[in-house]
Design a protein that fits this description.
The protein is α/β, with parallel strands linked by helices and 511 residues long. 36% of the residues lie in helices and 17% in strands. It starts with a strand and ends in a 12-residue tail after the last helix. The structure holds adenosine-5'-diphosphate and magnesium ion.
């Protein structure tokens, strides 16, 4: 008998329905056609054991399976359950006229239990779009799929549950999840809050500006100054995620098989890869392409702790995606794109030994060591970092201060207001949404200075020996400072503040 069942393949962050035809005939053999990879070809062993251990069997006949569309590569073991149901139906072990009404996915263990799959969210979105009645998938992934309204999703632990359901037995119910309610419930409870940080008012101010204009930022300071602590709190002062952003980010995490318990993410991601990370793990790719850290950080923050420790080549591959806000991975037969719009926060010690210009430092570095260390971060990547700030440890009295500092939600309100002004300003531009994204022409248009401000900037550039690249960055950042004050024009005191945030451009650093 010939039976049709449906699975799904994920490319980038989108799914494509895969039609699987199973035909059982006289003879022997297990033939799979339609570009399956080796994991799918090995499915017969897992399916045979899983069925046998649950009172069913792989028929001793000629089983032919065709996976369509034929030109799409099908990968991984998530088709085990689809194939198992198809085989059972084609051999009359499942009697049901509903098998082709569902998308069915899951990897089988030999005892018939299910292992999680990747991409449950995009698969569910596609299944709804194409009018399927429901989606069967491993229980571990059900919350991810349940984000989608208008599709019955069934999380199951064992192959028997889907067999029973299709034959009208058992009491399996779809998982219902009120996406909106869950989403808004905890939106105002960030995991890490700025109120935990004692003192450091000027650094917090700086991070507020970075958040308000979407400016990439680098924190420079000795070990223990609180750089990591501060960076971790940046997502909490960015404007709250919209439902649309949350879906985009959750989709990427779903494709990577890394959605957390709660399903839909409502906090901006904070990713902090170790400096030994490989190119592929950072930007994505691999023989079965997977999103990298820069995409896992989409709509959130990517924190590169100890920036000069990263391999230069790794920083190099990140440049294009940082600019384009997406990363494209090309293979002979296909090209996929992962979104990668994130804010970059970097940290560094002022020298390889951790200290700079500090006579009491436990370790000191030779000028040669210093230069080698700093040269790793100079150039194109540093060019994309608008704000440099030095972080010094807070004194002990401040640390033991009982007074509660301002909360992230309060800071976030100011950031959000400043962002709203920018959204209006750039409404007519397709690729610019906040100040950090302005190109040189737009900077000239939106950051016009009066004569005194211009003079101030000129003098500062000469006196502090600021590099030419600092010029545009200062203008952009001063635009954001003005926006935080809801000031139409960039004024002298905005410029004066922005000038302070260029530590690495001064003499003695990168020159
Ligand atoms: N301003 C601060 N307020 C409260 N705790 C702080 C502050 N600065 C540092 N700490 C404490 O010191 C620890 C080390 O800070 P950390 O962020 O790891 O420093 P760094 O990344 O600069 O080496 C933090 O986990 C925190 O407990
Ligand atoms: Mg640290």
């Amino acid at each position: 008998m010939l039976i049709k069942v449906f699975g799904s393949a994920v490319f980038g962050v989108e799914a494509t329905t895969i039609t699987i035809e199973v035909n059982i005939d006289k003879g022997v053999g297990y033939h799979l056609v339609g570009l399956p990879d080796s994991a799918i070809k090995e499915s017969s062993y897992r399916i045979a054991a899983a069925l046998k251990n649950n009172g069913y069997q792989l028929p001793g006949k000629k089983i032919t399976i065709n996976m369509a569309p034929a030109d799409l590569r099908k990968e991984g073991s998530a088709y085990d359950l689809t194939l198992a149901v198809g085989i059972l139906a084609a051999s009359g072990q499942i009697v049901s006229d509903e098998v082709d009404k569902y998308v069915i996915m899951g990897e089988l263990s030999l005892d018939g239990s299910l292992q999680p799959i990747k991409g449950a969210l995009p698969i569910a979105i596609k299944a709804r779009e194409e009018g399927f009645k429901g989606f069967f998938l491993p229980k571990q992934n059900v919350k991810e799929a349940a984000i989608v309204d208008g599709l019955d999703v069934y999380g199951i632990e064992n192959v028997l549950e889907v067999i029973d359901f299709l034959e009208g037995r058992g009491d399996l119910k779809p998982t219902v999840f009120d996406t909106r309610e869950e989403f808004y419930k905890t939106l105002d409870f960030p995991e890490f809050d700025f109120s935990d940080v004692k003192g450091q008012e000027s650094i917090k101010r700086c991070m507020e500006i970075a958040a308000a204009g979407g400016h990439n930022i680098i924190l420079i300071g000795p070990p223990g100054a609180g750089k990591t602590m501060l960076a971790k709190r940046l997502p909490s002062i960015l404007p709250p995620m919209t439902l649309k952003e949350a879906l985009e980010t959750t989709k990427i995490h779903s494709v990577a098989g890394k959605v957390k318990e709660g399903g839909l993410m409502n906090q901006r991601p904070f990713r902090s890869p170790h400096h030994t990370i490989s190119n592929v793990a950072l930007v994505g790719g691999g023989s079965y392409p997977q999103p990298g850290e820069i995409s896992m950080a989409h709509n959130g923050v990517l924190f590169l702790d100890e920036l000069p420790e990263f391999k230069r080549e790794v920083l190099e591959v990140m440049r294009q995606p940082l600019e384009d806000r997406e990363v494209t991975i090309s293979r002979a037969k296909f090209t996929i794109t992962y979104p990668s719009s994130f804010m970059l926060v970097a940290s560094m010690n002022p020298s390889p030994g951790g200290y700079f210009n500090d006579p009491d430092a436990p370790v000191s570095s030779s000028p040669h060591e210093m230069q080698r260390y700093l040269s790793k971060i100079s150039g194109p990547l540093l060019d994309r970092i608008d704000i440099h700030i030095e972080v010094t440890p807070v004194p002990f009295e401040k640390l033991s201060d009982k007074q509660k500092a301002e909360s992230s939600i309060e800071i976030r309100q100011r950031v959000t207001k400043a962002r709203e002004l920018q959204t209006m300003r750039f409404a007519h531009l397709e690729n610019v949404h906040y100040n950090a994204q302005m190109n040189t022409k737009q900077i000239r248009e939106y950051c016009e200075l009066d004569e005194t401000s211009l003079q101030l900037l000129k003098t500062a550039m000469e006196r502090l020996n600021l590099s030419a690249r600092a010029y545009d960055r200062i203008l952009k950042v001063s635009r954001t400072i003005a926006d935080l004050e809801a000031s139409e024009n960039v004024q002298q005191h905005h410029i004066a503040e922005a000038i302070q945030y260029r530590s690495l451009d001064r003499d003695g650093w990168l020159g």
